[in-house]
Amino acid sequence: MMRNIAFKIILILIVVALCLWALYPPSEKIRLGKDLRGGVSLVYSVKMPEDAQREDVLAQVIDVLQLRVNPQGVLDISMQPQGLDRIEVVMPLPSPEVRELQKAYKGQLQELLDLSRLNPGQLEQALDAGNALEQFGGDPDQADVIGSRYSRIRELQRVHDMARDSRQQLQEALAAGKDVQEIERYERSIATAEVMQERIQQQLLLETLDDARLMRALGLDRGQAKQSTSADGTPLVDEQGNPVMELSARMVEIDSIKSEFPHLAGRVDELIIAHDAYIERRTGLDDPEDLKRLLQGAGVLEFRIAVANAKPEGVNPAIMREQLVERGPLNTDSNVAAWFKVNDLKQWYDGEEQLAILQANPESYFASQRGLIAAEYEDEIYLLLYTTPTKSMTHEDGSRWSLQSANRIVDEMGRPAVSFSLDPAGGLLMSKLTGPHQQAQMAIVLDGQVYSAPTLQSRIASRGQITGNFSDDEISYLIRVLAAGSLEARLSAEPISTSILGPSIGADNLKRGLEAVLLSVIVTAIIMIIYYFFAGVVADIALCINALFVFGVMAMIDGTFTLPGLAGIALTIGMAVDANVLIYERIREEMVNYKENLRNAIRLGYQKATSAIIDGNITNLIVCFVLYKVAATEVKGFALTLSLGVLGTLFTTLFVTRVVFALYTEGFKARSLPMLPTVIPAIHRLLEPRINWISLRPFFLGFSLILAVASLVLFFSRGRDILETEFRGGVSLTMMTRDAEPGEVAGPDGHLMISRGLVEERIRQIGRDNPDDPILSELANAIVLTVGTTNQDMEASGFQVKVANPPQATDDQNISGPIEEAIVNQFESELDVIQPVEFAGIDDSDHTRFTYSLDGDRLGDALSLEQINTPIGDFRGGVGILVEDIAPSVALDEVVQRIDRMRNQPDYSSTLGRDIEVVGVEPGPTQGTWSSVAVMVYDPDVNAFDVELDTWDRELASKEWDLVSKAFKQKASLEQVSSFSPRVAENLAASAIVAIILSLLGMLAYIWIRFGSLRYSVCTIMALLFNVSVCLGALALSTMVANHAFGRTLLIEEFRIDLNVVAGLLTIIGYSLNDTIVILDRVRENRGKLNYAGAQTVNSAINQTFSRTVLTSGTTIVTALILFVLGGTGIRPFAFTFLVGLIAATYSSVAIAAPLVYSRFHDRQAPRADEDEDTVDVVAVGS
C-alpha cells in the first residue's frame, strides 16, 4: 500500500516540477493580454468575391500583413481570423519598463554620437581656446596609441598652436622691420603648420561615426558564430586544429566600427547592451497610429524588368557595385536602374551544392545560374533592376491598378504553377511592359524587395501564369507574395473595430486584479483552515497546486492572461473549494451520522461526492467550450483559464488530496479527522436543519416569479441603453488628465481633478453645437463615467466617454476619429497628448513646392526669405523644408520630437541617422511658438554635390517631405479608444446570445442524460433563467443608484452589458448549475430506485447539503465581494454580475430547482409505509 502511495507522490511531484519549470522565469513566461499591460486591437474587414476560398484568402492577407509589420518576427503582434471576412490585429503597447529601456538606449546612443562627432566650427573654436584635447580627444588611455583620436587631436592642437605662434611672430617681425629671410622663415612655418592642420583636420572629420551606419549595424542579425568553410564546404581550422569561427554580420560591422574608433570601443559595447536590452523587452510599436499606418501601407506590389548580366543596357555594373558598397542601395547615380534586396535566398537555389556556391560568390552565382546582376551589401544580396517607366510597372506615377487574384493551378505539363489576374488598368500596363521584353526576366517586387524573377515566355495582359519546376513551398511562397498585390483593394480603409488600452490602465487593471485574486485566495485558505483544521490545510495545498497547474499549463501553451482570465482564476478557487467541501462534508457525515472509522469515512466520502464533483465541473467545461468557440479574445482568456482550473480541480481534489489522506491514515496511522463542527457539536446541528422546504414551495415560487418579472421589466425598460458600445455600436474612449499645476486640485497620482458633471456638459455641448453633423451630434447624448479615484465632489483624473453610432452609420465609416478629435480639442489644455496640426500643403504629394536645395551660405538665400540669417553650415548639400501656416503654432522642440519619433518608425528606417535642425521662420501668437518653420536635413550619403539630382530629389527631398508632413499630421492616441461598427456590434450581440443558448442546451442535454429525467433538466433551466433575470435587473437598477451617495458608497457604477458581463452571466449559469446539481444528486441518491422524488426525499436532500451550501456559497461570495471592491473598474462589471448571480444562484438552487423536482402526484400515489421511518427529521414550517 505504501509503495503505491509513494508512486503517486512521485507523480504529483513530477507534475509540480514540470509546472514550475514551465513558469521560470515568470516575468518572461507569463503573457499578459492587452487589458492587463495595455495594447491595441484592430479589426479589419476583408473584401473578397462570393466564390472565394475565404479561409485561404484570410490566411494570405495575414501572411502579407505580418511580412510588412513584423518581418523579423521579433514583435508580439498577433493576427488571427475573425469569422470568414475579418481579421483582428492585436499588439501590446510599451510598458513603463520598456519606455525606460528605450530612454536609456537613446540617451547612450546620443552620447556616443556626440563623442564621435566633430563639428568644424566647434573644433576650430576649441583649437583657438586651447581645449580641443579635453573636448574631443576621447579616452586619455589612448594617448600613446599611434593613430588614435587622442594622439591626433593632440597633434592637431600642437600644429594649430604652432601656426598661431608663427603668425604672431610674423606680425612682430613685420612691426620690427626684420629682414626678408626671417620673415620668409615665419611664413614657411605658418604654411607648413596650416597644411598639417588641414590634413589632420580633414582626416578627423571624415572619420566621424555615422549614426545611420551604427544603427544599421545594431539592427543586423545577431546569429551565433559558426565555423567557416572553404569553397567546397570543408570546415576550416587553424594551425592548432581549432575551428575557425565566422562572425555574424553584426559583429563584423561592430568590430569594423571599433577598429576605426578605438577610443569609443567601450562606449560601443555599452550601447550594444542597452540596445539589446531594449529590443528584447520591446514587444510592439510605440503607438497604435504607427500600427495603423503600417497596415494601410502594406502590400506595395511592383513588376520590374531585371538587368541582364549578358546585356546590361544603359548600366555599368562595376560602377553600380562600387556605389552600392560606398553609398548604400538608395544612393546610386543611375537614372535607369537601382538595387533591390532579395527577400529570401531559399527561393534562389536548389540543394546544398548551389547554396555553397551562392554563399562563396553571390555575384558569380546569380550571373551563371540566373543571368542576373547581383552584389552584396551588409551581408544582404541585392539585384539590379530597371526603374524606367518602359521597363517597370509601379504605382509611382499615380497609376491605379491592382492584382485581383493569385491561385494554385497545374500547367500543361502537369506541374504545379501559379495563375494570377489583374484588373483592366493593370492588364493594359502589363501588356505594355511584357510585350517588348519577351524572354527577359521580370522581377516580382513587394515593398521594395525582390521575391522572384520568372522569365517572360510571351506577352501577358489581364491574366498570366508563372510556370517552372516549383515545389509546393515555392508555389505557396509566390501565391503569398502576389496576394499582397490585391491587399489594398481587399482590406478596409479603416478598422471596423478599434480597442486601445493605455499601459497605465493595463497596469492598474493588473495590480488591482492580482491584489483581489491574491486576497480572495488568502481569505478562502484561512476559512478552510479555521473550519476544517488539518483537512483545511490539505485543501489549501490542493488550491496552491491547482493555481500552479493553471499558470504552468498556460506558460506551456503560450496562453495569454486577460482581465476576465483573472476572474476565471477566482472562480476556479470557488469551484475547488466547493469540491473539497463536498468531500469533507461527506466524510464528516459518515463519521458523525453513521459512526464509520476514518479510513472508511474517507473512502465513502470520496465515493459519494465524486459524481456531484464531476457533474458540476463538466457543466462548467460546457460553458467554457462554448465561450472559447464564440466569444471575443479577452473572454476566451476567461474560458481557457477556467477550463484549466476545472481540470486542475479534478486532479487536485480527486487525486492529490486522496493521496495526502492515504498517507495520513496509512503512513501516520491517524484515526481521527477533527473539524470545527465535530469539535463544537452545536455548529454541526446548526448546519443540518430539519426544515420542510416543500411546504414553503408556494411562497418561494410566487416570490421568485414576481422578482424575475420585475427584473425583466426593469431590464427591458432601459432599451438599448443597457447595452455597452460593443453590442450596440459606437465609441468608447478614456482620457486621463495632465499633471496638476500649483493651485489646481490634484488627485493621489498628481493629475488634475475635474468634475464629472462639468466634463459631461462640455462634451454634450459639442453635440448641441453641431446639430447638422451626423457623427458629432451624437455627443449630445454622450455618457461620461469616472475612472480611477473619485472624490466626494465627483471629481476625477480619468473619464470614460461612451457615444452611440449615428443611425445611418456604415461599417466603412470612421466614427471614432472625429469624436476623438473633437473631445481632444475641447480638453486640449487639460490633457497631455500630442495633437495633429494643420499646415500649408498638408495633403499635397508634390514635394517640390516645399523643398529646397541647401547650396548657399544662408538659409534665407536658399528659401528666398531675406529675414532668415541662419547659416547653412554643415547642412550644405542637404535639403531645406519650409512648413508654413501651422495651426495651432508649435514650439521648435516639439517639431524636433515629432520628426524624431516618426524617423524611428520601421517604414522610415532608411532615414535613420540624418542630421536635422529646425529654424523658426514666423512667430506664432503664443510666446515660444512658431507658425512657420524651416527644417534642414543632411545625409552624407545623399549629398547634392555627390549624387545625381534625381537621386537627391527621390531619396532625400521627397522622403523628408513625406516624413515631415506625416510627423505634423500624426496624432497620438488617448489612454483607451474602442469603436465598434454596426456590423461588429450585431455580430458580437449575436455571438453572446448564441453562447448563452448553446450553453443552456448543452447543460440541458447533459442533465437529462445524467439524471435520466427531463423534469430535472427543466427544473434546472427554470432556476438558471431566474438567476439570469435577477442579474439583468440588477444591471438595469445600477444606473438609477450609481450617481447617488448610496450607490457611490456601495461602489455601484452605471453597469451595462459588455463582453465581461456576458462572461459573468455564463459563469453564473455554470456555478448555479453546479450548486443545483449537488442538491439534485443527493435527491437522486435519496430516492434510490424510485422514479420520482417525494417531499421527504427533497427535504432531506436540501437539509443534508445545507452545510455545503452555506460554506461554499459563503466563501465564493467573499471571493466575488473582494473582486468587486478591490478589482478596479476594469473587472467590476464582471464582479457585480457574479456577486448578484451568486446570491440568486444560492437562493434558486434551494427555493426553485429542488422544490420543483418534487412530484406531488407520485407522492400521493406512493405507499405510505415509509413515512414513519424518518419523519422526526422533518419539521413543518409555515402552513
Furnish the topology, listing elements before pairings.
Elements: H1 2-23, H2 26-29, E1 31-32, H3 34-37, E2 39-45, H4 54-69, E3 78-82, E4 86-92, H5 96-116, H6 120-129, H7 132-136, H8 149-176, H9 180-206, H10 211-218, E5 226-227, E6 245-246, H11 249-260, H12 265-281, H13 288-296, E7 301-305, H14 317-327, E8 337-342, H15 351-360, H16 362-370, E9 374-377, E10 380-386, E11 392-393, E12 403-410, E13 416-422, H17 424-434, E14 442-446, E15 449-452, E16 463-466, H18 472-483, H19 487-490, E17 497-501, H20 503-532, H21 534-556, E18 560-561, H22 563-593, H23 598-630, H24 633-667, H25 676-679, H26 681-686, H27 697-717, H28 725-728, E19 730-736, E20 754-755, H29 756-769, E21 783-790, E22 795-804, H30 816-826, E23 851-853, H31 859-863, E24 879-883, H32 892-903, E25 915-923, E26 930-938, H33 949-969, E27 976-980, H34 982-1011, H35 1014-1041, H36 1045-1049, H37 1059-1087, H38 1095-1104, H39 1106-1126, H40 1132-1157, H41 1160-1165
Parallel strand pairs: 1-18, 8-15
Antiparallel strand pairs: 2-4, 2-17, 3-4, 5-6, 7-11, 7-14, 8-10, 9-10, 12-13, 13-16, 14-15, 17-27, 19-22, 19-27, 20-22, 21-22, 23-24, 24-26, 25-26
Helix pairs in contact: 1-21, 1-24, 4-18, 5-12, 8-9, 15-16, 20-21, 20-22, 20-39, 21-22, 21-24, 22-23, 22-24, 22-37, 22-39, 23-24, 23-34, 23-37, 27-35, 27-40, 32-33, 34-35, 34-37, 35-37, 35-40, 37-38, 37-40, 38-40, 39-40
